[in-house]
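Researcher: Let's run the pair from yesterday's discussion. Sequence first, then tokens, for each.
Model: Starting with the first of the pair.
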Amino acid sequence: MCWSATADLVAGTGIAAVGVASVSLAARRPRDLPLAALPLLLGAHQIIEAAVWHHDGGTGPATLAWAVIALPLLALWVPAAVLCAAPPSARRRLLIPLAAGAATAAALAYALANRTVAAEIRGHTVGYSLGLPQAELIVVGYLIATIGSLLLSGDRGLVLFGVLVAVGAAVSLVLWRQEYISTWCAFAAVCSVVLLLWVRKRRPHP
């Protein structure tokens, strides 16, 4: 996230708390649990980045943990979670972003296993580098898996979340091209708070 380790820690703690509330509300709808847990995962992700700040970037365990969540895990988690929660009428078309996510996650996991990811503190942002081959193709697959699955979900709340994440991706690309991954993840983490409202609306009545 931008600004500092403290900003990441405070934001991550708050977003993770929202995730705990979302999971507790979704307990009666098991199919919603993976999406309800997304703020919890993204909050923890921001807390991990606070550790990256604390170690002045580098290639240590915190950097690797951050990259594992940001790259292969989210590429697969988001489309799989959307598929679980989506209405039956949308599930067939959601197989496309799920397949894109699986392929992208496999490519990213392979890259992380065979390359060294490095973090660099750049003023008030953190830049990550992995030296991905065919990076443009991987980015397209990632966007189809994450944003695409939300927009194709057939659920208004998830479509809204997808639009917000898409806007965040565009803004991050324009303003922080070299630190795009970090700033977009932070933006998505903040936007994931809307999932608490989504879970509330879907909670079964007593």
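Model: Moving on to the second of the pair.
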Amino acid sequence: MPVAIITGASKGLGRAFAEALAARGWDLVLDARDAEVLQGTATALEAYGARVTALPGDVTDAGHRAALVAGARLLGGVDLLVSNASALGAEPLVRLAELPLDGLRRALEVNVVAALGLVREALPSLRAAPAGAVLAVSSDAAAEAYETWGGYGASKAALDQLAAVLGAEEPGLRVWAVDPGDMATDLYAAAVPDDDDPRPDPVSVVPALLRLLDERPASGRYGAPALLEER
């Protein structure tokens, strides 16, 4: 069966996408920092008959990234790499004039450097896969200027560019950066804790991600709302 590595997989969009893949017969290697929550997710997904390897850790740790790829190889390889783990840089978000530089560095390390490090670790397996793909979870903050979202948005814009260049350099793979749109997630709640407006459940975004896998469009940046509207 195909194998996916998904970072930030214990909750939110990562868990929702992992569950959809498990239901389709994929085997999974899942990452998150909270070991207890991650194990609960893994146990739930095993009910679909999937083989699930749960590896708690920090994606900025090179040893942890190597363990994720090694775990996938034990399951048969790496067919899909999903970079979903994200850091905001400040919680709650603040204007650039108040953004701690250490917070910005953390956002860049998690959202950009670690994502590239994991791609590099997995690249031989991705190239060997029948239909290797990389999916980088981006944000509309990467392309729009929203007050207080500057540090996070800059890191996601850098992730978009890495994905674009990787797609050009690896024509045998599919490399997609995906803006999922508004979602009700713990990340958003931490970013803007005073915002009580209802937002869509991350599960509503999953069909857009599955469409990419099913139709394998050219490498590039895609918006989940547009993918859903076009169906």
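Researcher: Give me one sentence on the second I can quote.
Model: The beta strands are 3-6, 27-32, 52-56, 80-83, 133-137, 174-179, 220-223.
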